[in-house]
């Protein structure tokens, strides 16, 4: 994961237009990777909600035009219903020298391009809120972006975790699996905690055990490169408690419920 001190990337001022949960997560992730706070602008209508960033010397403002004028890289982290009106407000201030990065779900590269007055280099990215602790998985796609600007976008999101480039046609799927997926995993952990309490642990201890166990399971897959079933086989002995529990979960629809939930999420995105 790259550090930004004394690198070329540190020369580019970044404006995050929309300092909500995801926008703040991106700013916090950059700060954790030692990005110069004085080269970050974050905007929000209720600017007082950005006081924690301001205390770290980040420029906070409700003036989107000011942030755009002061920056080379513009990250749009707004709600989908607001993006068109904000781009209309800013279109005359955005030039071919800007790199546009959108982290807005359900708003395509073509839609972004149509809102601007000239051929602008655009990268669409889908991180998740784990960006705030440097553990996001970000998928990116681009339109008219040079290799240099794709590299810049990759550097930014590598500071927040890991980045992979995908075809834009898969961006809705990336939103569901990577961004909505945070909530799915947290709901699973919550259920593990509740089960832990039922079998005798206090809430704090159950939370620690469940959270670390999920972290460990993820690292087994990431570091060993195995299919999940290979790791499952290592802990399922004949007539053992693990296989008994797994089979009961499957009888109750565990895997099918999760798959149906993922499919429902993407159908909801594509319905509009």
From TrEMBL:
It is an enzyme of class 1 (oxidoreductase). Keywords: Amino-acid biosynthesis, Cytoplasm, Kinase, NADP, Oxidoreductase, Proline biosynthesis, Transferase. Its main location: cytoplasm. Pathway: Amino-acid biosynthesis; L-proline biosynthesis; L-proline from L-glutamate 5-semialdehyde: step 1/1. Residues 168-269 form the Pyrroline-5-carboxylate reductase dimerisation domain. NADP(+) binds at residues 17-22, 77-80. The keyword Amino-acid biosynthesis applies. Its EC number is 1.5.1.2. Transmembrane segments: none annotated. GO terms for biological process: L-proline biosynthetic process. It holds the Pfam family F420_oxidored. GO terms for molecular function: kinase activity; pyrroline-5-carboxylate reductase activity. NADPH binds at residue 64. Coiled coil: none annotated. It is found in: Cytoplasm. Residues 13-104 form the Pyrroline-5-carboxylate reductase catalytic N-terminal domain. One of its GO terms (cellular component) is cytoplasm. It catalyses: L-proline + NADP(+) = (S)-1-pyrroline-5-carboxylate + NADPH + 2 H(+); L-proline + NAD(+) = (S)-1-pyrroline-5-carboxylate + NADH + 2 H(+). InterPro entries: 6-PGluconate_DH-like_C_sf, NAD(P)-bd_dom_sf, P5C_Rdtase_cat_N, P5CR_dimer, Pyrroline-COOH_reductase. HAMAP family: P5C_reductase. NCBIfam families: proC. Belongs to the pyrroline-5-carboxylate reductase family. Catalyzes the reduction of 1-pyrroline-5-carboxylate (PCA) to L-proline. This is Pyrroline-5-carboxylate reductase. It comes from Kordia algicida OT-1.
